[in-house]
Design brief:
599 residues; alpha+beta; D-Maltodextrin-Binding Protein, domain 2; Dipeptide-binding Protein, domain 3; 3 domains; five-stranded mixed beta sheet; four-stranded antiparallel beta sheet; 17 helices; 23 strands; globular
Length: 599
């Protein structure tokens, strides 16, 4: 695996009796006093599980933070329980941060009109410099308040109170307040907006029958915000009232379509490009889809956070050909890129002024079968295709081993609620062949796998799956399509290969893609018992109990044979060595406030 280069500030493990107030956590938070008077009632049980070794430190940190403990406070509590802590110690820097400069980033420059409808990280990476989320996921995969100052759930996880930081100004001079948060959440949950955030915040919605039917004679249902879901407590405090308990509300408010826009966004035309009013440290100077986006630093007095180092960020669209991106990095036309497939690693390593960065994630790709379309309405066909795939071999062929094999259930080992299954998946060609014959295809079966033409790992994965299916009498014809064409129809193709980005929690991906009626449910998967278990998992703060439910969810999705999922992939990019203090993020988010350029 490629290790990220050392940074000027080094994290060192120090064993201490109790972390001092003012110590710095690995996430960069100052250690505050923590008051047991304000703790969630489940926290003592969580601490006891950590003490007994029944849960690990990562799961303790994530759950404690979601229960309302500050990130720094959670690290302090873990240190108290384990009689040790990890603190960040600042050592002599190789160079002082330098103000100024233009960071040039090679990345697709996409339409940024409506943040609520974002479906790709590159859209949010441009917008994130202008507008910001309520919550951020740190490099440790733990949620942190950002525009929010704090959050507090009720004991039953059905009421969540968020406090916004005071003193934050929009770039037009207006104060950022509770009305902005209420406007955004209300708009996300409006079915007319068609935001994927509706699935992320489904615990605040109700589904009703419209009285109409579709062309198959099935009832058409409408999902919208439940009455009384949002309560304004004061100018900077909002309370959410959920229909069902949900532990993942902070993570839902961190995802890339959850960047907050001004409360008059719709009145101003609903186009961020034309009216780029934001709370972030940069202002939009230029944005041309398919070409470039230019952002300039706002005056320090106008931005609520610490002053950023870079004067300008320029995103440059170099197309889909990785050779063009490598050439631009090699010739110093750009300073970093968004991401590479693993097959670019050797070329990057031969260029002395470049640094490879890599991190393991829950990013993946799935060959999903739409269960409402023939021949995939027959579970035997779906299972046969799934049984043909050798996950370990696919990881080596398609991604050079930079990741871990998957298990056909879309929950990754990096997810804190992941349950280890006792039986590992193995290909079974004989059983696959028998299933195809039992389904009535005595002379074999021919299907088409629709795949976007780039990046290369998606193409290679799809072609490798096709080769693995041949011995079972399944002829998979791979139809490579331009990105714009593929993504216009990805939700409706009978058999398609879809890339999925990182999510901090397994339940997030399951709610988006496999719950009945989920807005990104591309397979049409509908299983009432599965939905019930998923709701139970989302409502269970006890990590041990939640893993028991997750084991049932993981096994059921395998059994339903909805997807063939080969591997979880590391994400990789390259930076010029003059780019300092950049750390690749698990979700490929660009957090550039503390990045600087060496002269």
């Amino acid at each position: 695996m490629i290790r990220p280069r050392a940074q000027p500030e080094v994290t060192v493990e120090c064993r201490v009796q109790a972390p001092a107030v003012g110590a710095i956590t690995p996430g960069g938070d100052t250690m505050p006093e923590y008051s047991s008077r304000t703790q969630h009632q489940y926290l003592p049980e969580l601490k006891e599980q950590l003490r007994k070794g029944e849960i690990d430190r990562r799961e303790f940190l994530r759950t404690a933070v979601l229960l309302g403990v500050s990130t720094a406070g959670a690290y302090a509590l873990a240190g108290e329980v384990l009689n040790q802590s990890v603190v960040r110690v600042a050592r002599a820097q190789s160079a002082q941060p330098r103000m100024g400069g233009n960071l040039r980033v090679g990345m697709s420059v996409m339409d940024i009109t409506d943040p609520a409808k974002y479906d790709w990280p590159p859209k949010a990476n441009v917008a994130r410099q202008i507008i910001e989320p309520l919550v951020q996921i740190g490099l440790d995969n733990v949620a942190r308040p950002h525009l929010a100052e704090s959050w507090k759930p009720s004991a039953d996880l059905k009421t969540w109170e968020f406090k916004l930081r005071r003193g934050i100004k929009w770039s037009n001079g207006d104060e950022c307040n509770a009305d902005d948060l209420i406007f955004n959440v209300t708009r996300w949950l409006d079915p007319a907006t068609a935001s994927s955030n509706q699935s992320r915040l489904r615990a605040m919605t109700v589904t009703t029958d419209t009285g109409r039917v579709n062309d198959r004679g099935q009832p058409i249902r409408r999902t919208s915000m439940a009455e009384g879901s949002i309560e304004k407590i004061d100018s900077h405090t909002v309370r959410f009232h959920l229909q069902t308990p949900d532990l993942a509300i902070p993570e839902a408010l961190s995802d890339y379509p959850a960047l907050l826009v001004h409360r008059r966004f719709a009145d101003m035309g609903g186009d961020l490009r034309k009216n780029p009013i934001g709370t972030g440290p940069y202002r939009l100077v230029e944005h041309t889809v398919g070409q470039r986006s230019v952002l300039a630093k706002r005056p320090k007095a106008d931005y609520w956070g610490d002053e950023v180092y870079l004067d300008q960020i320029t995103y440059v669209d170099l197309g889909e050909d990785p050779a063009a991106m490598i050439a631009a990095l090699a010739s110093n036309q750009v300073d970093m890129n968004h991401q590479f497939s693993a097959d670019a690693i050797e070329a990057i390593q031969r260029i002395p002024h470049l640094q490879l960065n890599e991190v393991g994630t829950s990013a993946t790709g799935v060959a999903r079968m739409r269960i409402t379309e023939k021949p995939f309405d027959d579970k035997r066909v779906r299972e046969a295709i799934r049984l043909c795939v050798d996950h370990n071999r696919l990881l080596e062929i398609a991604y050079r081993g930079h990741g871990v094999p998957a298990e056909d259930h879309h929950v990754a080992p990096i997810h804190p609620e992941y349950a280890t299954l006792s039986d590992k998946l193995k290909p079974d060609i004989e059983k696959a062949r028998a299933l195809i014959k039992a389904a009535g295809y005595d002379n074999g079966l021919t299907v088409t796998l629709y795949t976007v033409a780039g990046p290369s790992w998606e193409t290679i994965t799809s072609q490798a799956i096709a080769e693995m299916c041949k011995p079972a009498g399944i002829n998979v014809q791979v139809n490579l399509m331009p990105g714009a064409t593929y993504w216009d129809r990805w939700l409706s193709t009978p058999f398609g290969f879809t890339s999925w980005g990182h999510r901090p929690l397994g339940v997030q991906a399951l709610n988006l893609a496999y719950r009945t009626g989920g807005i990104w449910n591309e397979s049409g998967h509908s299983d009432p018992e599965y939905d019930k278990w998923l709701q139970e998992a989302s409502a269970t703060p006890d990590p041990k109990e939640r893993q028991k439910i997750m084991e049932k969810l993981q096994r059921r999705l395998q059994e339903n044979s909805v997807i063939s999922q080969g591997y979880w992939r590391s994400v990789i990019n390259a930076t010029n060595k003059r780019v300092k203090n950049f750390k690749i993020h698990v979700a490929l988010e660009h957090h550039l406030n503390k990045v600087w350029l060496e002269s």
